[in-house]
TrEMBL record:
The species this protein was found in: Thioclava dalianensis
Organism classification: Bacteria, Pseudomonadati, Pseudomonadota, Alphaproteobacteria, Rhodobacterales
GO cellular component: ATP-binding cassette (ABC) transporter complex
Molecular function terms from GO: ABC-type ferric iron transporter activity; ATP binding; ATP hydrolysis activity
Record protein name field: ABC transporter ATPase
Pfam family, one: TOBE_2
Listed PROSITE patterns: ABC_TRANSPORTER_1, ABC_TRANSPORTER_2
Length: 362
């Protein structure tokens, strides 16, 4: 007889929250197993923080259920108080108590004997590299150090679930990568199920095992970061992760005509307006040698002639803008320094396998 399946650490079923007639969170469902980092990603106002507040118990849903380790903690006729949910919270302002030392802040939510609490505080301060600051007060710490104290305090009671709302947005950009990596490593060691809210796609890509992309209160796509980036559900989802070049066309005979030749558009009826989307890093460029075009591969299709209108160096790459003979403006990103002068003619090619074809937006 096979063992019973382990329930997810956190499971949300058909969660809905309305303010007046507006559904801020609209019938969303997802689950997070122990040890997984899941990110709620989306623009401001899409319902991410409201979802977090309902799971934490500081807001109450209008419909739906919340389960922790298979046990219902919130549903019709039942609401477990926030302090009994075994759920930790961590916010962007850290919310440290200014009158308590670092050690006292970390120990604040702990129960047990003084010896047990001291041992747990010492363990966590060692793991976040703050043992020498145990007697310091928050105002004497840097932003990154305060963030690590907040993390240690959130993890001290060994919550089964940790909710993080834009936890790194207040940090200097130079600190973020290191702090995020340290935080992720500690969360993985603890085996905590993490629900992270952010509007920063790079943060979600860096931290999450799974991303839930939200828009207008609904989850429009979910999956591993790689899948969301390389197989976006629509043009808006693609644009959330990077700049885009968009070539508009109309389907005729399952084909769409573009400056780069014809594109297959299966599944789109004749007369349908479509957007062919390509990211700047997938636009290939070649010098115009006396008007002779390059020899593209089959995947690159027909080259189109463009004139450089502007080139900028961005530190790790160069961004070059072109105007096609049709008037279309496209952008190409090139590694390192590449700054051709305005007016330089060049050939542009796009790989068909790197393009997305969507119904025209709007």
């Amino acid at each position: 007889m096979s063992p019973a399946p382990v329930p997810p650490r956190l499971e949300v079923r058909h969660l809905t929250r309305r303010f007046a007639a507006q559904a801020v969170v609209d019938d969303i469902s997802f689950e997070i197993p122990a040890g997984q980092v899941t990110c709620l990603l989306g623009p401001s106002g899409c319902g991410k923080s409201t979802t977090l507040r309902m799971i934490a118990g500081v807001d109450v849903q209008d419909a739906g259920e919340i389960h922790v380790d298979g046990t219902l903690i919130c549903g019709p006729g039942l609401t477990v108080p926030p302090e009994q949910r075994a759920i930790g919270l961590m916010f962007q302002d850290f919310a440290l108590f200014p009158h308590l030392t670092v050690a006292e802040n970390v120990a604040f939510g702990l129960s047990g004997t003084a010896r047990e609490k001291n041992a747990r505080v010492a363990e966590l301060l060692e793991r976040v590299h703050l043992s020498r600051h145990r007697g310091s007060y928050p105002h004497a710490l840097s932003g990154g150090e305060q963030q690590r104290v907040a993390l240690a305090r959130a993890l001290a009671p060994r919550p089964r679930i940790l909710l993080m709302d834009e936890p790194f947005s207040g940090l200097d950009e130079r600190l973020r990568d290191d702090i995020r990596d340290e935080t992720l490593a500690l969360l993985k060691e603890e085996g905590t199920a993490v629900l992270l809210v952010t509007h920063e796609p790079h943060e979600a890509m860096r931290m999450a095992d799974e991303i839930l992309l939200m828009r207008a209160g609904s989850i429009v796509q979910r999956g591993a970061p790689y899948n969301l980036y390389n197989a976006p559900v629509d043009r808006r989802a693609a644009a959330f992760f990077s700049d885009l070049n968009v070539i508009e066309s109309t389907v005729e005979g399952a084909l769409a005509s573009t400056p780069f030749g014809e594109f297959l558009a299966p599944g789109h009826a004749d007369g349908t307006r479509i957007d062919i989307v390509i990211r700047p890093q997938h636009l290939k460029i070649d010098f115009d040698r006396a008007g002779r075009g390059p020899n593209p591969t089959q995947e690159e299709g027909t080259p189109a002639r463009g004139i450089v209108t502007r080139a900028r160096y961005l530190g790790r790459e160069s961004l070059v803008e072109f105007r096609l003979e049709t008037g279309q403006v496209l952008k190409a990103s090139v590694p390192n320094v590449f700054l051709p002068k305005a007016g330089t003619p060049m050939w542009l090619m796009i790989r068909r396998d790197r393009c997305f074809v969507f119904p025209a937006q709007g």
